[in-house]
Amino acid sequence: TGAGSWQHQSALEWCQSGLSLLGIDIPLHPSPEQALAEYEEVWKNIGTREIEDIVDLPLMSDEHMSMAACILQSLYTSAMATDQNLLLFATCRTVNLCLQFGNCDASALAYTQLGSMLPRIFDNYDRASRLGQLGRDLVEKRGLKTYEARMQFLCCIIKAWTASLKLATEDLYPAAQTASRAGDMSYVGYCFVHTEVNLLLEGQPLAELIKVQEEHSRLLTGAGRWVHARVVTLVHLALLKRTTQLSLDIADNESDETAFESALESSTATLAGLYYVLKLQAQLILGEFKSAIETG
After folding, report:
1. CB-based contacts of 218-221 (< 8 A; 24+ apart in sequence)
2. Does the pLDDT at position 255 exceed 60?
3. Which of 119, 127, 140, 204 could crosslink 161 through cysteines, CB 3.0-4.6 Å?
4. HSE-up of residue 207 (Cα within 13 Å, Cβ side)
5. Contact between residue 81 and residue 268 where contact means Cβ atoms under 8 Å apart
6. HEC assignment per residue over 93-112
């Protein structure tokens, strides 16, 4: 957590090495065609079954494959930050292992991860919702609870696409509580970050948003605090500093905006993308159209 691009790459290489020991070879930078082929394999493996039927698959008995599924799901954060093709490929490879060898703790997360990608990549909202429910059923009906908090978080991402931001935001609070009970502070941070972004998109008054961010910062520790601090800082620099007199006491002292942008781009494409969207919005509000074009 808090990793720069080189640390994400190192994490991916360790995962690749671990999988190789289990007889599973994956490319760290698959082509779009490789990612799509793995995705299509999912639906071939499901075949004529309904998505809902997958909950009744037997539990995975092959310990090596169970371990492989856990390693594959651990690629999620680094793949999200560095390579969208790898994110899709690794998620689908995990799903395919589960379809072939049975359900395990990683299954609940894998199906929900895939569901969270379907709306934005494949414009498929129905399957996304059903895969999210499958993840919940695997936790609630089969007792596969190791990744419950992460599954709940991803269900909120799905709900933002398939239902509404308001409903997704409401579900992020219990997801954060589950993550906190599990000691998964990174995902507490992710839940808080998405809550704040959703509130911003819903038109929450900025003064109220600041209060929410300050409360979240007070509650967070460790890895989750780092994740949250990055977003607080980028919201401050991209939006509040330009459009209001409001300030965030909890924002990092990032007086050099250019240095902050450079560090952000080298750290994570996801947060960098959010930052530049907010910056562009602020520039449009202020009529700085030439700068907005450059930001875009």
Report:
1. 219/188, 219/192, 220/185, 220/188, 220/189, 220/192, 221/185
2. no
3. 119
4. 1
5. yes
6. HHHHHHHHHCECHHHHHHHH
- CA–CA distances in Å: residue 133 to residues 53, 153, 263: 12, 13, 38
Helix (H) or strand (E) holding 6: helix 5-21
Complete DSSP assignment for 57-104: SPBP--HHHHHHHHHHHTTHHHHHHH-HHHHHHHHHHHHHHHHHH-B-
| Ordered DSSP codes for 117-181 | HHHHHH--HHHHHHHHHHHHHHHHTT---TTHHHHHHHHHHHHHHHT-HHHHHHHHHHHHHHHHH
Nearest-angstrom CA–CA distance, 236 and 246: 9
CA–CA dist 120, 126 (Å, integer)? 13
Q: Which are the contacts of 250, defined by CB distance < 8 A and separation ≥ 6?
A: 213, 214, 217, 229, 232
The Cα 210–Cα 204 span in angstroms is 10
- Three-class SS of residue 204? coil
- pTM (2 d.p.): 0.84
> CA 262 → CA 149, 185, 256, distances in Å?
32, 26, 10
d(CA 81, CA 267): 8
**What number of CA atoms fall less than 13 Å from residue 208's CA on the CB side?**
8
User: Token pair for residue 222?
Assistant: 């460790």
The per-residue pLDDT for range 84-143, each reduced to its tens digit, is 999 999 999 999 999 999 999 999 999 999 999 999 999 999 999 999 999 999 999 999
The residue type found at 289 is: F
Q: What share of the chain is helix, strand, coil (3-state, %, to 5)?
A: 75, 0, 20
